[in-house]
TrEMBL record:
<dbReference type="InterPro" id="IPR002332">
    <property type="entry name" value="N-reg_PII_urydylation_site"/>
</dbReference>
<dbReference type="InterPro" id="IPR002187">
    <property type="entry name" value="N-reg_PII"/>
</dbReference>
<keyword id="KW-0805">Transcription regulation</keyword>
<feature type="modified residue" description="O-UMP-tyrosine">
    <location>
        <position position="51"/>
    </location>
</feature>
<dbReference type="Pfam" id="PF00543">
    <property type="entry name" value="P-II"/>
</dbReference>
<keyword id="KW-0547">Nucleotide-binding</keyword>
<protein>
    <recommendedName>
        <fullName>Nitrogen regulatory protein P-II</fullName>
    </recommendedName>
</protein>
<keyword id="KW-0804">Transcription</keyword>
<dbReference type="GO" id="GO:0005524">
    <property type="term" value="F:ATP binding"/>
</dbReference>
<dbReference type="GO" id="GO:0006808">
    <property type="term" value="P:regulation of nitrogen utilization"/>
</dbReference>
<comment type="similarity">
    <text>Belongs to the P(II) protein family.</text>
</comment>
<comment type="function">
    <text>In nitrogen-limiting conditions, when the ratio of Gln to 2-ketoglutarate decreases, P-II is uridylylated to P-II-UMP. P-II-UMP allows the deadenylation of glutamine synthetase (GS), thus activating the enzyme. Conversely, in nitrogen excess P-II is deuridylated and promotes the adenylation of GS. P-II indirectly controls the transcription of the GS gene (glnA). P-II prevents NR-II-catalyzed conversion of NR-I to NR-I-phosphate, the transcriptional activator of glnA. When P-II is uridylylated to P-II-UMP, these events are reversed.</text>
</comment>
<comment type="subunit">
    <text>Homotrimer.</text>
</comment>
<dbReference type="GO" id="GO:0030234">
    <property type="term" value="F:enzyme regulator activity"/>
</dbReference>
<keyword id="KW-0597">Phosphoprotein</keyword>
<dbReference type="InterPro" id="IPR017918">
    <property type="entry name" value="N-reg_PII_CS"/>
</dbReference>
<dbReference type="InterPro" id="IPR011322">
    <property type="entry name" value="N-reg_PII-like_a/b"/>
</dbReference>
Amino acid sequence: MKIVSAIIKPFKLEEVRDALIGIGIVGMTVTEVKGYGRQKGHTEIYRGAEYIISLVPKLKIELIVDDGVVDDVIAAIVGSAKTGHIGDGKIFVHSIDRAVRIRTGEEDLAAL
């Protein structure tokens, strides 16, 4: 099993969700996060005053999936989250040793 973590632009959430449902992924966790990379923030004007926004709002999506579908998940996220502009985000993949469904006690793939 793998955990796939993707940092995306907030307005792309529904497109990413629909793409993941389209390949059979039924569960994910979404967290509001802030950060910066090459984008290094931006400036905004509010009531005539200019503000520097150094941490850009993003969403972090986390999915636990079987090893065999990781490439499909990555392709779905890239295909639906990509705008072609700086700040589209990143995807990270980590190994998961064990998963347990609290309600039933099912483990590993059965728990997903």
